[in-house]
Amino acid sequence: MTHYRSFETERLLLIPTSEEDAAFMLELLNSPSWLRYIGDRNVRTEEEAATYIRNRVTAQLERLGYANYTVIRKSDREKLGVCGLYDREGLEGIDIGFAFLPQHEKQGYALEAALEVKRAGIEEFGITQLKAITVKDNVASQKLLEKLGLRYSKQVQLPKDPEELLLYEFNADDLPVDSQE
Q1: Residues 112-135: what's their mean pLDDT?
Q2: DSSP letter at 65?
């Protein structure tokens, strides 16, 4: 079995999402903010969640070496949300994304996890351009993307999605060499 990178911050562990996370992913995929801002993935059972992980997460992890990470609080090992780097259909380049259970929002976990995923993407996976998409009314996500250094670019539409999304972009090549940490 191939070993994939995990990451650590002051408060968090970021572990590649696996089928062992099916119950957690089922809860997250059906949480109010996921349904409102990301969309219904029609995952209603743990088995469907395991299939979703196998097809959407594990397949990309095996292909690229990175994908979705389950964000775990170190102090009590509770699963809080997800953050990752995604090769998303209809979006040229790599997308950084995040989602947390409602009880773990607005505590700085998403920013802490996303900063580490961004760092790993640039420094460890050699990704020089990051993109992110969000719906127009997800102001909290837009603010977090701006804190990550991504800037609004334009509106886009993904295949099989009627909603126009806001596209944010970051280019590591635009940074002065001494500011890349």
Answers
A1: 97
A2: S
For residue 126, count CB atoms less than 10 angstroms from its CB and return exposed for 0-12, middle for 13-18, buried for 19 or more. exposed
Q: Write the pLDDT tens digit of every residue in 43-87.
A: 999 999 999 999 999 999 999 999 999 999 999 999 999 999 999
Contact 84, 56 (CB under 8 A): no
Q: Which CATH architecture has domain 7-175?
A: 3-Layer(aba) Sandwich (3.40)
Average pLDDT over residues 98-103: 98
- Domain limits, the chain: 7-175
Q: How many CB atoms lie within 10 A of CB 137?
A: 10
What does the DSSP assignment read for 67-130? Answer: -EEEEEETTT--EEEEEEEE--TT-SSEEEEEEE-GGGTTSSHHHHHHHHHHHHHHHTT---EE
Q: Report the alpha-carbon distance of residue 11 to residue 72 in Å, rounded.
A: 9
Burial 139-174 (b: 16+ CB within 10 A, else e): eebbebbeebbbeeeeeeeeeeeeeebbbbbbebee
Stated as kind and residue range, the H or E segment containing 23 is helix 22-29
Name the pairing type of β-strands 151-156 and 7-8. Answer: unpaired
Residue 94 has pLDDT above 70, yes or no: yes
Instruction: Name the token pair of 11.
Output: 């408060």
